[in-house]
Amino acid sequence: MSKPLILVTNDDGITAPGIRKLISIVNQIGDVIVVAPNSPQSGKGHAITINSTLSFEELNLDGPQKDFSCSGTPVDCVKMALDKILPRRPDLVVSGINHGSNSSINVIYSGTMSAAVEAGVEGLQAIGFSLSDLKWDADFDQAEEFIKEIILKTLENPMPKGVVLNVNIPKLPKEDIKGIKVCKQANAKWEESFDERTNPHGRKYYWLTGYFNNMDQSEDADETALANGYISIVPVKFDLTAYEYMNELNSIYQ
Amino acid sequence: MSKPLILVTNDDGITAPGIRKLISIVNQIGDVIVVAPNSPQSGKGHAITINSTLSFEELNLDGPQKDFSCSGTPVDCVKMALDKILPRRPDLVVSGINHGSNSSINVIYSGTMSAAVEAGVEGLQAIGFSLSDLKWDADFDQAEEFIKEIILKTLENPMPKGVVLNVNIPKLPKEDIKGIKVCKQANAKWEESFDERTNPHGRKYYWLTGYFNNMDQSEDADETALANGYISIVPVKFDLTAYEYMNELNSIYQ
């Protein structure tokens, strides 16, 4: 049986330690092609580049994989990989390992998860991996076995079209990780607080800052699982229709 | 009874004819504050600005509303409006009128809809409006009465938390619009085809292009409603959990 073709991308950029770790893991499983941003693209959500141009180039980095550095967003990388770079449709698209959590509401801001969602829109199997540690030199080793398990299980048990996985890993030593839990997206949000400063010319400017407000203590929420030492897996879809509200809305417009 | 406070934003920029039309409509209903991007932000999805700074300034444009031009993405505009500009939480956030359709899968790429979703995350009532006409000088007049009706109905019938509306208007004369239909997001996608060019220095570069592939002929899909001459309303949520796949996923990880 031929090896699966695996596309790897991320939002922290092609040289980030998190993606290099993920590449080393998938190199053990399949033929690997990396198409990732040439610069940090955190918080880019599902942005695509339509008012300017894109380019990519092949790099010569260590390992059996092929590496392509792309000028666009994570979603651009997936589109460009599929249309211009890959020899055939990949069997799996993995994104990450993100430096920082993409649990709960972060799924909608995350370039890492948006790349996985874009692959899902293309009808592909896709998983986004994130570690709850923003540091550039975070320890990605502790999650290796779990990531491998999740990838192998996904290849063996393909998801239905329209579903991708959002996997978050707590910042814990390997021996303290309690296992893997299937979860729902926790009800949480960022409470904004812009940091106001004045530039040398007297004009005000702002940095986006804030704190994370978890409003969901339910047992099956991803934030709860992470707080309890589990790796969380949320099945994510991109049909955003609020079906449960359609009847009421229909009654308003009848 | 005091007038509702209405925040207006968009992704085509604060001077786009679509947002100026929407402002003229909501000026008839409430007190209006506009916080919109100072440059086109189409296709920016749910992007936020975290690696650079933001600024805004008040403009002096015709009309009773206040206009603030912001350097960020549509989602940045909503965050900045709530934290730094509005005197109190608004009763409604409206985004658009977008120059171009945001039906079906376009909801995830659209800056217009992401601004409405961000308002929903903040627990606010929010509606995104889009016209199926990309032209800068598109005719936004034909939809005025329908937009007014939808805004008034939303103020009278608040949506549950976690739901916002995605309203799309077909490019038709007013007399040919058949009415308003509550719909689901159609199953559709863009088929990418990058346009490859060579720059004066011999390097290849690409423009993202493609064609729209509607794979959903069901009666209640937004694409069907638009094709049949109706204005489509899709209730949109941002809990992306694929609940219907959780049992199966649980059985894989037991």
Chart the SSEs and their pairings.
The structure is a homodimer of 254-residue chains.
Chain A: E1 5-9, H1 17-26, E2 31-37, E3 56-59, E4 66-70, H2 74-85, E5 92-99, H3 111-121, E6 126-131, H4 144-156, E7 163-169, E8 179-182, E9 188-192, E10 195-198, E11 204-207, E12 210-214, H5 222-227, E13 230-237, H6 246-252
Summarize, please.
The structure is a homodimer of 254-residue chains. By secondary structure, the first copy, chain A, is of the alpha/beta class.
Q: What number of domains of chain A?
A: 1
User: Largest chain-chain contact?
Assistant: A-B, 71 and 71 residues
Number of helices of chain A: 6
The stretches of 5 or more residues of chain A where confidence is low (pLDDT under 50) are none
Number of strands of chain A: 13
What is the mean pLDDT of chain A?
Answer: 96
CATH class of chain A: Alpha Beta
Fraction of residues in helix of chain A? 10-25%
What would you call the quaternary organization?
Answer: homodimer
Strand order of the largest sheet of chain A: 3-4-2-1-5-6-7-13-8
Strand count, sense and barrel status of the largest sheet of chain A are:
9 strands, mixed
Shape of chain A: globular
Structural class of chain A: alpha/beta
Strand content of chain A: 25-35%
CATH superfamily of chain A: Survival protein SurE-like phosphatase/nucleotidase
